[in-house]
Amino acid sequence: MAKDIFLIGNPIAGNGAGEKIKKAVTILKNRGYAARLLLTQKKGDAELFAREIASEFGIQTSEAAKMGSNLLTVASYPLPLVIAAGGDGTYNEIANGLVHSNIPMAILPFGTSCLLAKELKIPRKIEVAIDIALDGRIQTIHLGKIITRDVSRYFLLMAGIGFDGKVVFNLNKKVKRYTGKLAYILSGLEVILKYIPTPLIINFGFKHLHSLTGLMMEPQCPLSSLPPPHHLPSQTDGYVVIVGNAAYYGGDFKITPDARLTDTHFYVFVAHKKGRLNLMRYILGIISGCHLKFKDIAYFKSTELSIEGAAQIQIDGEYIGITPAKVGIVPEALKLVVAVSSSSFAIPCQCNFNKSTRQPIYLDLPSKSRAMHIPEKGYLKSLKRPIYHRL
């Protein structure tokens, strides 16, 4: 049993979250857990609660390393447990508060959108979700981090720039509270009718490593061993950019199906063409699952990128601002509670570098993807697998 349990709940998350939170507290009490309930009243409260808990109970990574890796269960872990009760916006806030604290976060899917629960295969049934929170395994995951001129935020699932950023920006919060996912559909239809996209330039790979030092990321290999950036295809353009740290994106759809929370990179989807007809075609492609077969998209993996232009941004379903922005992976940033039997986390993540040469594997597409092979130059000859860039 954890020494302390803190349940941070968002009572207006949707789907009757307030009553579900009360039921969760009752279940915990009946099982002998005296959970401390912290209810949010406004945006930012969940992060503030989590940050205060992390400040009082958190420990440094070097100390946490002595406890072992991903084999510990919640019951055997010596630090408090934070249970996030709400939707993806609530999870995002709590993750931002707990980052690098080594205090584990479990989730109860009580919100309108609970993509993280889908990713972790945690059902909406309260009793089962609580079973996983109390008896699950603690898994270390990587977070994304995005920096704009005005804000710096971590994200669990995704960052969306362009169309979906505009949809979230236009979202009516009151309508969302009472209609749930319908609010996103209504906002999306409105944006499709009125949206005038602006072109975006995406720079990716290791070319911007030095300019990303504000992300507080340690490079995965010595700077001296990084290849010259001009050897790499490091730029593309488009009107919609999705940076996926996880597979699920909006309901049951997967824009970046190869992305995993335990990978040391994210997958990036870029739509090259503008216009309502093209936008509708991309949306229908995502719904049908054939969007990666389109010839006018880019799909690749990277560890950092920058986006130039002027477009709205959303992360984990929350609006944060406008580009330009820089995005990067932050390794081993959060402890997350998953089901003991979860197959999604059965294989430990591997460093995205060639082990013999310590050179970065810059881009690597799934074999089923439509791709163009880039001729090998210099350091590329030492890699065991071909490097691809999707046009």
Structure description:
By secondary structure, this protein is an alpha+beta fold. It folds into 2 domains: about 5-135, Rossmann fold, CATH 3.40.50.10330; about 145-390, Tumour Suppressor Smad4, CATH 2.60.200. It is built from 10 helices and 18 strands. It has a 6-stranded antiparallel beta sheet. Strands 12-11-10-7-14-15 form a 6-stranded antiparallel beta sheet, with helices on one face. Strands 2-1-3-4 form a 4-stranded parallel beta sheet, with helices on both faces. Strand 5 and strand 6 (about 150-155) form a beta hairpin. Helix 2 packs parallel to helix 4 and helix 7 packs across helix 9 (about 180-195). The chain is globular. The model is unreliable at about 205-230 and about 345-390 (pLDDT under 50).
